[in-house]
Here is the input.
Amino acid sequence: MKRIIALIDNVFSKVEKHPDIKQIKKVGELNVPTGKIVVCDPLVEPEIEPIVKDFPKGKFPVYLYYSHEEDCIAFAELRFSEAAVQRWEMALVDDQDLKELEENEIFGYAVDSSLGCFMDIEGQKAMLNHENELSDKLGDKFTSYYDNYIDNLFFGPGAVDEYYCEVKPYDNNPNNVIIFQAGYGEGFYGSYIGYDKDGKIAKLVTDFNILEE
Here is the structure.
């Protein structure tokens, strides 16, 4: 784990772009009303518990870091401030204990749909509720939330980019989910919290195992 954190620190401590990063792109803003953040495969484990840490509340930008050679997303960042990160720690869920990890093991989330996400638990509720409503409305025509809704956000009319999309199903509800392609696709990916010199959370980063340690 120490080598992974060293890699992340190396990438995110650069004033200019890291040489292995082709592009850093702001892809939206996440509404965070509760400070309880969920990171997961939104199609496989959308009901997963949030990270145990309490994050700042408000609206915060999400950035994607595209790999120079592989042309895929190497990191996803939820940025809470522009302050420099002084230390990193692994994001944990429920009763996970770092002492249980062997060398080079991590906690994280499994991806089977090739997608990852950031969402507040209120955005999680909105997405799950919308999926249930859509299933009830379409009945036998409902195939999956991806096929009947999210695919159109990635590839349909008005789609911005095939690498990411925003799920915001209700006009009168500001809560949303930022979904993005996860590295090479299927895998197991860890997330890390960056703290500034005053001990305040500055970043939440998911590493998609593209750059070598």
Helices lie at 2-12, 121-138, 145-155. The chain has a mean pLDDT of 92. The longest helix spans residues 121-138. The chain has one domain: 2-207.
